[in-house]
Amino acid sequence: MFVDQVKINVKAGNGGNGMVAFRREKYVPNGGPAGGDGGRGGNVIFKVDSGMNTLMDFRYHRKFKAKNGGNGANKSMTGRSADDLVIPVPEGTTVTNTETGAVVGDLVKPDQELIVAKAGRGGRGNIHFASPTNPAPEIAENGEPGQEISLSLELKVLADVGLVGFPSAGKSTLLSVITSAKPKIAGYHFTTLVPNLGMVRLDDGRDFAVADLPGLVEGASNGVGLGFQFLRHVERTRVILHLVDMSGVEGRDPFEDYLAINKELAQYDERILDRPQIIVATKMDLPDSKENLEAFKKSLDEHATDQAKIPEIFPISSVTHTGLTELIRKTADLLDTTKLSDMEKPQDTAKEYEYKPADSSDFHIEYDKEYESWVISGDKIERLFKMTDTEHDQSMLRFARQMHGMGIDDALRKAGAKDGDTVTILDFSFTYVE
């Protein structure tokens, strides 16, 4: 089954907890702190797999979680770092942050990698907190939480040439003749329900990929028919072969069909019409095709505002193979001189994506009337709390100093907090003292 859009959730591994420990060797008279650091958690990495051509693997597996790092140990031993979670994706996958709508990355090269969720670092053991005034600290950090993010994956077929046209215009038949692809072909509309890919190889050694896109209809850009959900696959093509049925067996006007398809492409993305386009007059083996082609050319000339911009017309018959060699050669020549504009190139993204939540402020304070408690929330303060070892008093005192340094004490006072009020951070509550 062809799947080209999915939503998934990924969670990087948490760092391991640091340890509070002390040296107790026989010949070490002063001992000292010896708690090791926690190990790093595992990152979540997308890696392009050239053997994949659909997002089907994500349809029933939507949650991915990397492993956490190991905890620190005594004798200053560091916990084991977790392995990264590598998730294969097909070429042409665009990754978007569902929460913010920002594009995380465009994966279009073989074996390209992108870190989409960064692992938490390991918490520091008490060896890092020793000082002349506190030579035996009972302070250690918990591991930093790994990033958690909701992502939208959208596959845009990577093809050099896109075949567009009304249903039953002959796209699948043409693809089956010029490539080794075997798309479904039948005498009714919407035979093609998913994009089909094929490779064309010329005698001179050149080759290019062709995508047969499901038939567009008038109103496709507004969701009519199948075209809307597959129009995105035209975005990556460099040359468009616009197939127009010249037989007239269904009573349609070929020129009106041509205008309707171009209108849908323009409404989806005006830049698509700036790309080289070849008009492929199909089914020329049928009786009325020649007369209809002449009428089509006349209408094209009459409506053209610039004669130099009129696309070249290639009459073909996929049944008798008439005109196919010339069409393929012309298409290859156009590809040799055509590159996607800078705006249409895949976005340059860093190997590592820096995820920032929609609400990335340090802290918020609000009063919960139901529980009669001041609630402190915010990405930074919650992360600091999660990294605090609440089992040791010195760690809690350190967290209190961090809160004071962030200005939370003053903010609570200004908000109206009084001595003895309850203050809550996540699932932890304490009493506010002036």
TrEMBL record:
Q: Where in the cell is it found?
A: Cytoplasm
Main location (coarse class): cytoplasm
Every OCT domain range? 355-434
Q: Which residues bind Mg(2+)?
A: S172, T192
Q: Which domain of life is it from?
A: Bacteria
Subunit comment for this entry?
A: Monomer.
Name it. Answer: GTPase Obg
Its organism's taxonomic lineage begins at: Bacteria, Bacillati, Bacillota, Bacilli, Lactobacillales
